[in-house]
Amino acid sequence: MGESGLVRLKAIERVYRTGRVEVRALRGVDLEVARGEFVAIMGPSGSGKSTLMNILGCLDQPTAGNYHLDGQDVARMRKGELARIRNRILGFVFQAFHLLPRTSAQENVELPLLYRDEELSWKDIHSRARAALEKVGLGERLDHTPNELSGGQKQRVAIARALVTEPRVLLADEPTGNLDSRTTLEIIDLIQGLHRQGLTILMVTHEPDIARYAQRTITLRDGLMASDVRHTPLDARQALDDWTEARQDMTPTEVVAP
Amino acid sequence: MKWSAVPYSALRALRRNLMRTLLTALGIIIGVGAVITMVGLGQGASAEVKEQVNRLGQNVVLIFPGERQLGGVSIGGGSANTLTAEDARALREEIPEVIASSPEVRSTRVVVYGNRNWATRVYGQSHDYLQIRNWGVESGEMFTEEHVAEAALVAVVGQTIVEELFEGSDPIGETIRVRGLPLEIIGVLERKGMSLMGSVQDDIVIVPYTTAFQRISGRTHAMVINVQVFDEESMEIARVKIADLLRERHRLAPYQEDDFTIQTQEEVAQMATETSRVMTWLLASIAGISLFVGGIGIMNVMLVSVTERTREVGLRLAVGARGPDVLLQFLIEAVILCLLGGIGGIVVGLLGTEIIASIAGWPALFSAEAMIIAVTVSAAVGLFFGFYPAWKASRLDPIVALRRE
Ligand SMILES: Nc1ncnc2c1ncn2[C@@H]1O[C@H](COP(=O)(O)OP(=O)(O)OP(=O)(O)O)[C@@H](O)[C@H]1O
Ligand SMILES: [Mg+2]
Fold this sequence. Notes:
A: 6-stranded mixed β-sheet; B: alpha+beta; 6-stranded mixed beta barrel; 13 helices; elongated; binds adenosine-5'-triphosphate; binds magnesium ion
């Protein structure tokens, strides 16, 4: 790793000031993530996971510390440059999806492409968005608006939106927080697929079961890094197949039972 | 960023929030439409008043019998018998500034043609009355000085008479009867419309005053003398000379008050203008209130969606938009909305003015100033409330904007 780290945080602090109260959400976090890693970030509620994620995603600036992303010193960047980083290098997936209401999946996914520095033709924009939606398995739902989609489908649209710019790093803050366990597995399967294709992924979750699908788990506690463990990831595809089998085993028995 | 996406996104946003778009546009349409209609009507009414004052004739002086009454007005007087036809002739012949003078008697009489009856006002006038009133004949001719001298049984009739008694066909040469007196129609007057007092001026029969005085109205004295003065500069001198001549003719001692009242067209015009000015202000205030209410409507509709807008801005920032990119989109969105509303309001306002003016019989006047003011005000409101939340949101960190509830 060392210099080759795609993400390098050093002594990151983040202090929120609300009125006279100061909340030290991060109190000196060091983190290096290499290209192609799949990292889960865990920790109890209020430990600073989202705060860290927002800083990683350049949606928020650290109060102190250094942040190098792909060799660039993003902690020192101005707003305009950060917008460029968010657009070109990062893809962000939120727990609450954050899709534009009353807007088709296709147009939601096209959104980041509209803000690229170099202009793409409309034809290019449309075809890239379509390709991204096909990649997440929603090739049939291009014209659906968010309220015509299930939670899992919404998150797929959001993932397609994060992928459409071909980012280096995918950041996901509790991407499955609003989903049931079956849909969660499907989304994790999708993310694992992206990881296999070489994408670097950082994902916040507070469920240890889900963290086990990553290669490495970082645990935060009170704004500090409490542990950093590497492990062999579980396979979500396998888990899905087991699930389907279990249901098939069950169903006939129930039906046949007199 | 992709510039063609800016107007595109703006239009999409307007369509996405169709209800908000329509309500906002409606607010602008109501405000602009009301202002244009009200101001247009007010100005149309004033113009109509001016026009009518002009139609009274140029440099006209009216002389009423009886002394000046409190407030100075005694239109429709004629209570006193102090003015004679000879007074009128003397004014024309002895005062150089007076170029026309007509002693007037009015009476409402039933006019008969064949088996048709019509109650109308019969005026006795001199041959130069139409000149004073700046009125023309549409066909035939006005009666002449000779007709007046020999008290000829001739009449000039207004358009209403042609419609009511002759069903619009040419009445020249036909004979109508008034109190059994046969009158040959020798002329038809041009259409004149409503008077300042709201009466239909075309409902009229004019005959030589010599014919009218005794035989139709049963009067010996004029109810008004209509006088025309040579030009505007001569008005004041003429006024003094008229007063002197009449006092002399009426043998008034210096200690006696005038037994007549002189009123210039100017004075009539002033009264009328004052009235129409009050009305214009009244209409303008109604318009102002509509604009205000429309503005509040726009504001409300815009503010309701602030949270949604803030989140949208947050999201756009999060996926890589710069603050100015997002602002431009919202600005264009607000501009399009205001343009649509403004154009709609102008169309509604023009139609409204046209319709009401045609019902009221006024000219439809369009005030460019009112249009500019109305569109500016509602556009400013729309722009401010459409743009301000976006501007505020664009200055937030994307994550703060996204989390806004
Ligand atoms: N905008 C903010 N203003 C003030 N304090 C904040 C803000 N955001 C977070 N905090 C505080 O910072 C601390 C860390 O919050 P953070 O959202 O990062 O926790 P988290 O680990 O994501 O928790 P959860 O699992 O509940 O999402 C908390 O104490 C929280 O109250
Ligand atoms: Mg969180």
